[in-house]
Amino acid sequence: MKITVVGAARSGLAAARLAARQGEHVFVSDAKPLDQLGTASAILNEAGIPFEYGGHTEAALHADLCIVSPGVPPSNPLRQEFARRGVPVIGELEYASRSLTNRIVAITGTNGKTTTTALTTHVLNGGGLSAVSAGNIGTPLSDLVGNVDPSTIIVVEASSYQLDTTETFRPAVSVILNITPDHLAYHGSFEHYVHAKWKIFANQRDSDVVLLNADDRHAAAAHPHVRCTTAFFSTQREVEGAFVRGDDVVLRMQQQQEESLMPTRRLGLAGLHNTYNSLASALVARTFELRNENIRDSLSSFSGVEHRLELVRTLGDVRWINDSKATNINAAWYALSSYDRPIVWIAGGRGDNNDYTALDELVDTNVKAIICLGEDADLIFNHWCTAKRCEKALTMEEAVSKAAEFAHDHDVVLFSPACKSFDMFSNFEERGQVYKAAVNAL
Question: 37, 59, 87 — which closes off a domain?
Answer without folding.
Answer: 87
